[in-house]
UniProtKB/TrEMBL annotation:
GO cellular component term of the entry, any: nucleus
Site keyed Electron transfer via tryptophanyl radical: positions: W419, W472, W495
GO molecular-function terms, A-Z: deoxyribodipyrimidine photo-lyase activity; DNA binding; FAD binding
Keyword Lyase belongs to the record: yes
Protein's UniProt name: DNA photolyase phr1
Amino acid sequence: MAPFKRKATDLLSALSPEQKRPRVAQPVSNQYKDSTDEIKYGIVLRKFYPPEMVNDRALAYSSGKIERPIEALEKAIKDTQAQRDRIAPGKCVVHWFKCDTRTMDNRGLHLASEKAKKHALPLVCIYLVSPQDFEAHLTAPVRVDFILRNLQVLQEDLARLDIPLYVETVEKRRRLPARLIELCTSWDARHVFCNAEYEVDELRREADLTRSCLEKGISFNVVHDTCVVQPGCLKSGTGNEFSVYSPWHRKWCAYLNDHKEQFDAFPPPDTNPSNTRQAYADLFDCRIPDAPKAKQLTPEEKTRFHAMWPAGEHEAQARLRKFILEKVLKYHESRNVPGANGTSNLSAHLAAGTIAARTVVREARDAAPSKKLTDDRKQGHSMWIGEVAWRDFYKHVLCNWPYVCMNKPFKPEYSDIKWEYDMEQFEKWTQGKTGFPIVDAAMRQLQHMGYMHNRCRMIVASFLAKDLMIDWRMGEKWFMEHLIDGDFASNNGGWGFSSSTGVDPQPYFRIFNPLLQSEKFDPEGDYIRRWIPELAGIKDKGIHDPYARGQAKVAERNGYPRPVVDHKESRERALTRYKTGIKRNTA
């Protein structure tokens, strides 16, 4: 499952005066519905965001009656292009790092370097740490730590090119754009480059910065780099946006086969002029800050996670090479087996931007026998590339249906399903104590590693949403608060898939049976034994369901809990709830 990071807002007070003025007529007078449970259980973070919006407003985004944030950014870029092109160079060029903490194959950084070289100017790089963004985006402490460690590696790599990386903490998230402008003004930087992020808040911020920087005589340049194929490039035969992965993926493959230049790698930046270290000595002395207090790891966690997840783009490149040499050929056979160690373990690096999605797809394509992209799911290279493509797809969904960032399911008609908010059961799920071994093993892996195997993400998500009938957004949120590879679009898309509320042609009655999933994907029980020591002594198939298969004494003696629900009964309840909720919403 590729990523609750309630990462976007429709909160008018967060917008600029120009944005507050509606550009189109609003389709509904009451924008938000009563969200008592959503607020009570922390699904809607009212410190930063508004209540859940009504379905009509969500559909107005979908139909284009309300301007999408990606459209606002594109309009700002187009409207200001001529004026920005006329801005003369200042004393330096700036690249603003965000989710692209690498020097290799980085489009925004490359363009900034080219601009600096053309005018014989130094390149200055910046990263702004926003504790409130970490809080609002539910960024896991393990991911914050990984981000900061990546910055340390990046700073050292850039320093070897006499390029400073200035890192500063901006306590109030609304102050971040203004602080960026202040720093650029103080350095007399007239050209700023950055790579686009596709969450709603970030798109709106960059659209606003494109215009507000221009008012200060600064050319702010947002470029597309995060996806292999830029969102908006692929359309169906009727000119509509794709909402189903398979036809979108076929189009994605065909597009890239026809546009091989999309794979061209961007070289690292050139070395700065020799006097840069003297001119910007204070920037070279900048240290990487500690994690905000609320996002700090314990000493034991630091030791553990640092050993498991070495930071930096060199580690990412090494993992990619190792995977292609040793594992990609068998990926289609091993990818669903959580105990097989058959995956690339690159998701944390892709989320942090220490390696480009373009890079990993290019390298996998070049290693494939056919040297081209296909949707052949019986071939390791193609299967793995197809899994990476999901990341592009979910960002495509995020841009075209932005209300998924606003506490709404992709299918608004699913928003009236009656969910449970049983916190005792939810806690048992989070702690890996549900009495369903495959579920518990996966949740304990997440606690220990800050990571979970993809097949297991689908199993535990289906279990929470359909066996326990607990609001899927609580699980989405929990994942973001604990995953080192937490990415809003992928996490949201994965939870939408498992709860049948997302971009998925499969109906709601697809409900995973945890026992069957366990027997199919962990047949010998190796994964379960690794993460559930209470059951390690069970040698036979009883490990999948110890209380129903003659292993009750072992499970009880070692303190392993009985199942919290009966799957058959839970399945019937889920079918009734979904059917009733959809009928109520569409009546």
